[in-house]
């Protein structure tokens, strides 16, 4: 079935009218009698893309809620400018500038990333454009609900002083802000609150109290279950106890972690699975009842980083883990980073980017994708003292009561939430200049819309070699059906540009 639009005496527009479940081009036949031939013009419309499927937790795995396939996190930590760039007073955070998000989403897409983590966000700002860009790129988001500002995180010295309605109002605000995006993978309740035995006496129960409240808020105000978990420091004297405390089942509430992130830098250049202690971690988490992954990794003791640990992390010996996120995307004061971001917005790809891309390209993505969810029947043990090995670590499994005024927030929702929603991604071409580590400019950087799955490594090399040439002109093979959304083709064959604009108007009207 087709629709014919007579736009001019010499021009007929013929459109097929199928349902359009995914983004793409409508094939438009332009009949041009003066040339004696038909011209096929693809006209691309921007409209909301449901690129990724929501993810849920089944046992120790993240699982695509539609396909049932296991999701292995191939990710990076993302906070351009570091903590100093979090400026709510200026209405700015890491996900407010859509031009920056587009630039970085394209570079992450080419890197092979399917997940990013963002640490500091303002719940009162609109993040719809950036979240939609990353969704279109096939990239999930793991989001911290805290910030470095006073009163916006758990005070590890006196956690009872920070657990209050103002703090939860902020945490719930982040949930409201991102709950409608299908690529919201989960929320971190806290990050490295415990970093030694002295901080492990009172903090565990308060972290679980926050998780209980977040999970109940999600249950009451979100139309799907979004996982909530904790990001722990790799401090071996408390690591196993932290994981055991966070995952154990509590009969009286739903305060346990849905997942467990580990910030680990134990594998440096030259290490192997034994010298790095990765074998110890694999054994520790072999019987985990919840997904475990590296929420940060990438030792920078020797640079450039080789990232040989990638092959181990996604290999058979560590298959119980669910992947990880490399620290970090942009080069900051700490000396980690895959790219350098300049004042004018241009970017230089570091050798670390090239090395990591090469490691991701070696992964057997088909095997990772085809691996069925494992150990979905493992049940978390009941919370009891015998789970904890260190005398100084908390054995108090009585979770603090809901803070004053907080139950009303949980039941009725916060006032005036900023709810984000998917929006059209109508700009797909990177405007900023991007250079390889040899100084040559990377050309033709465009977002490839993922219509039916998460992004994956494509096998390409983004950074041009010093002798010239790269695979950058090849579209990244993202999802099962990735396609560029920049308008292609034949405008030069039509003499009247205003006529082309009129055609585009009619075609795009059909997309709405």
UniProtKB/TrEMBL annotation:
Pfam families tied to this protein: Glyco_hydro_72
Predominant location category: membrane
Gene3D superfamilies to which the protein is assigned, alphabetical: Glycosidases
Signal peptide limits: 1-16
Superkingdom to which the source organism belongs: Eukaryota
Keyword terms of this UniProt record: Glycoprotein, GPI-anchor, Hydrolase, Lipoprotein, Membrane, Signal, Transferase
Subcellular localization: Cell membrane
Membrane topology type: Lipid-anchor; GPI-anchor
Gene Ontology molecular function terms on file: 1,3-beta-glucanosyltransferase activity; hydrolase activity
GO CC, one annotated term: plasma membrane
SUPFAM superfamilies with a match to the protein in the record: (Trans)glycosidases (SSF51445)
Compositional bias segments (type: Low complexity): 457-470
Record InterPro entries: GH (IPR017853), Glucanosyltransferase (IPR004886)
Biological process annotations from GO: fungal-type cell wall (1->3)-beta-D-glucan biosynthetic process; fungal-type cell wall organization
Chain intervals with Polar residues compositional bias: 471-490
EC number: 2.4.1.-
Keyword Metal-binding: no
Residue ranges, annotated region (Disordered): 450-490
PANTHER family xrefs: 1,3-BETA-GLUCANOSYLTRANSFERASE GAS1 (PTHR31468), 1,3-BETA-GLUCANOSYLTRANSFERASE GAS3-RELATED (PTHR31468:SF4)
Known function: Splits internally a 1,3-beta-glucan molecule and transfers the newly generated reducing end (the donor) to the non-reducing end of another 1,3-beta-glucan molecule (the acceptor) forming a 1,3-beta linkage, resulting in the elongation of 1,3-beta-glucan chains in the cell wall.
Family the entry assigns: Belongs to the glycosyl hydrolase 72 family.
Full protein name: 1,3-beta-glucanosyltransferase
């Amino acid at each position: 079935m087709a629709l014919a639009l007579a736009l001019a005496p010499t021009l007929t527009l013929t459109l097929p009218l199928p349902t359009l479940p995914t983004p793409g081009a409508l094939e438009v036949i332009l009949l041009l009698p003066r040339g004696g031939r038909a011209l096929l013009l693809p006209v691309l419309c921007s409209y909301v893309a449901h690129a990724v499927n929501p993810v849920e937790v089944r046992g120790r795995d993240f699982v695509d809620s539609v396909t049932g396939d296991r999701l292995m996190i191939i990710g990076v930590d993302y906070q351009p400018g570091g903590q100093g760039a979090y400026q709510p007073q200026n209405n700015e955070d890491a996900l407010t500038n859509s031009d920056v998000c587009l630039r970085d989403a394209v570079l992450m897409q080419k890197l092979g990333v399917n997940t990013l983590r963002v640490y500091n966000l303002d719940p009162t700002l609109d993040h719809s454009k950036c979240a939609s860009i990353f969704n279109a790129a096939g990239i999930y988001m793991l989001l911290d609900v805290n910030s470095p500002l006073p009163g916006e995180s758990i005070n590890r010295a006196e956690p009872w002083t920070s657990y209050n309605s103002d703090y939860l109002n902020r945490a719930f605000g982040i949930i409201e802000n991102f709950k409608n995006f299908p690529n919201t993978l989960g929320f971190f309740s806290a990050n490295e609150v415990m970093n030694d035995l002295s901080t492990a006496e009172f903090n565990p129960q308060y972290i679980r109290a926050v998780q209980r409240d977040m999970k109940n808020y999600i249950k009451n105000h979100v139309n799907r279950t979004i996982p909530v978990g904790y990001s722990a420091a790799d401090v071996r004297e408390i690591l196993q106890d932290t994981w055991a405390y966070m995952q154990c089942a509590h009969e009286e509430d739903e305060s346990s972690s849905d997942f467990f992130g580990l910030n680990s830098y134990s594998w440096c250049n030259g290490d192997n699975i034994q010298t790095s202690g990765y074998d110890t971690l694999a054994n520790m988490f072999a019987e985990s009842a919840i997904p475990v992954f590296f929420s940060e990794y990438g030792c920078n003791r020797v640079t450039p980083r080789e990232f040989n640990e990638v092959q181990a992390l996604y290999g058979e010996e560590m298959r119980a883990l669910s992947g990880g996120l490399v620290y970090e995307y942009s080069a900051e004061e700490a000396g980690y980073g895959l790219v350098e971001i300049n004042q004018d917005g241009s970017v230089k790809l570091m050798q670390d980017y090239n090395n990591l891309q090469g490691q991701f390209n070696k992964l057997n993505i088909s095997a990772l994708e085809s691996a069925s969810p494992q150990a979905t029947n493992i049940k978390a043990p009941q919370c009891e003292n015998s789970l904890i090995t260190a005398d100084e670590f908390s054995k108090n499994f009585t979770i603090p009561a809901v803070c004053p005024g907080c139950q009303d927030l949980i039941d009725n929702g916060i006032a005036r939430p900023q709810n984000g929603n998917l929006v059209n991604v109508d700009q797909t071409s990177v405007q900023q200049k991007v250079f390889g580590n040899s100084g040559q400019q990377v050309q033709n950087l465009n977002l490839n819309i993922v219509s039916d799955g998460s992004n994956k490594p494509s096998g390409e090399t983004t950074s041009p070699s010093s002798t010239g040439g790269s695979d950058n002109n090849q579209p990244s093979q993202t999802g099962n059906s990735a396609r560029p959304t920049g308008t292609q083709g034949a405008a030069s064959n039509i003499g009247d540009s205003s006529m082309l604009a009129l055609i585009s108007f009619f075609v795009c009207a059909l997309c709405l």
